[in-house]
């Protein structure tokens, strides 16, 4: 598929190969390996990585950009300056958003399309756009109402999630205030999130489906990720509201709690091979978390222990997990220089 690439001039893109430290852990008799295979320094990347390990980000100058880690090169995405690119497909299509200009799409050749803002809305959340291989897009938009009552009245935002498809345009999924979230979409256009504080999906034909908790009386469940095998992951708030439990759903009526480090956690992404990424609390006395991965056989691993990290570097968030068992990890050095790692799991 034709692409026009230009060599990176600002961002440091280094293929690390055998020089990058790797880690190994064992759970349930299975040895798990993780290796950093590419690094991008000095840029804040989006929450997406495709099967080729490609990333998208907005430069410090506001230029939306696609980075190819195998070559260390990057391609400027023209026609929409200031847009934040936040998702991409395996065939090179990119989605992003600009808070005033709305939804923006680039095809694999770099041609730009601007569907704009849903009718009745004022602006969009620049970090909310996600895209599936079928062309389904998630977007969060908002408008203002008010001012409301009270001693210091002020306007309030009304946030609503939308699905966009070529030819069909925008369709509302529901307002955030009503307990709706839409945060992930798979290649078949299945959207995952929550509906009325219950984990839910939206099918491409418009049907919705809710997912059961493991314990009756659970006050809130939610999905954060969905695989191309329609497996959901997310969390549950236990009755009493004192603990969040990382959860996997293979079917709407088949929730399965994932192991944690003893103090709760949340699963945020899952791939077709069964790898799951998320976070786990390390203490009952505070809410600090560490990034973790669950291997397909169910064992949990702290990423900071699984990787033999260079001095001063630490993983902060697993942003995405693709079907080649590669994770996109956001981290910082001691001087707060942002880093993005592509980490290979085996």
Topology (SSEs and partners):
Blueprint: E1 6-7, E2 12-15, E3 22-27, E4 30-41, E5 55-58, E6 64-68, E7 73-76, E8 84-88, E9 94-98, E10 102-106, E11 112-116, E12 123-124, E13 130-131, E14 137-145, E15 156-165, E16 169-175, E17 181-185, E18 191-194, E19 199-202, E20 208-210, E21 220-226, E22 232-237, E23 244-249, E24 255-257, E25 265-270, E26 276-281, E27 289-294, E28 300-302, H1 303-306, E29 314-321, E30 326-332, E31 338-345
Antiparallel strand pairs: 1-7, 2-4, 3-4, 4-31, 5-6, 6-7, 8-9, 9-10, 10-11, 12-14, 13-14, 14-15, 15-16, 17-18, 18-19, 19-20, 21-22, 22-23, 23-24, 25-26, 26-27, 27-28, 29-30, 30-31
Would you give an account of this structure?
The chain has one helix spanning about 305; strands spanning about 5, 10-15, 20-25, 30-40, 55-60, 65-70, 75, 85-90, 95-100, 100-105, 110-115, 125, 130, 135-145, 155-165, 170-175, 180-185, 190-195, 200, 210, 220-225, 230-235, 245-250, 255, 265-270, 275-280, 290-295, 300, 315-320, 325-330, 340-345. The chain has about 350 residues and is mainly β. The strands form 7 sheets. Strands 2, 3, 4, 29, 30 and 31 form a 6-stranded antiparallel sheet that branches. Strands 12, 13, 14, 15 and 16 form a 5-stranded antiparallel sheet that branches. The radius of gyration is 20 Å and the shape is globular. The two termini are about 30 Å apart.
């Amino acid at each position: 598929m034709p692409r026009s690439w230009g060599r990176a001039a600002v961002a440091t893109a280094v293929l690390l190969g055998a020089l990058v430290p790797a880690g190994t852990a064992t759970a349930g008799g299975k040895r798990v390996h993780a290796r950093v295979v590419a690094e991008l320094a000095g840029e804040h990347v989006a929450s997406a990585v495709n099967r080729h390990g490609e990333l998208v980000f907005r430069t410090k100058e506001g230029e939306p950009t696609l980075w190819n880690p195998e070559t260390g090169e990057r391609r400027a995405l023209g026609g929409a300056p200031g847009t934040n690119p936040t998702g991409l497909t395996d065939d090179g299509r990119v989605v992003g958003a600009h808070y005033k200009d709305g939804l923006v799409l680039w095809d694999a050749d770099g041609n730009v399309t601007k569907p704009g803002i849903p009718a009745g809305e004022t602006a969009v959340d620049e970090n909310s756009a996600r895209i599936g291989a079928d062309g389904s897009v998630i977007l969060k938009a908002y408008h203002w109402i008010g001012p409301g009552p009270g001693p210091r009245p002020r306007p309030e935002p009304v946030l609503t999630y939308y699905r966009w498809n070529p030819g069909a345009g925008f369709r509302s999924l529901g307002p955030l205030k009503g307990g709706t979230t839409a945060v992930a979409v798979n290649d078949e256009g299945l959207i995952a999130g929550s509906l009325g504080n219950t984990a839910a999906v939206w099918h491409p034909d418009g049907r919705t489906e809710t997912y059961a908790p493991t314990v009756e009386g659970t006050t809130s469940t939610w999905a954060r990720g969905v695989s191309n095998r329609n497996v959901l992951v997310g969390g549950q708030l236990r009755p009493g509201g004192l603990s969040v439990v990382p959860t996997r759903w293979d079917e709407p009526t088949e929730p399965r709690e994932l192991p944690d480090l003893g103090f709760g956690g949340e699963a945020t992404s899952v791939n077709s091979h069964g790898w799951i990424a998320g976070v786990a609390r390390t203490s009952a006395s505070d809410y600090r978390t560490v990034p973790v991965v669950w291997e397909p056989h169910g064992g949990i691993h702290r990423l900071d222990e699984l990787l033999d990290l260079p001095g001063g570097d630490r993983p902060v968030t697993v942003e995405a997990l693709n079907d080649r068992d590669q994770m996109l990890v956001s981290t910082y050095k001691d001087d707060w220089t942002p880093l993005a790692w592509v980490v290979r799991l085996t």
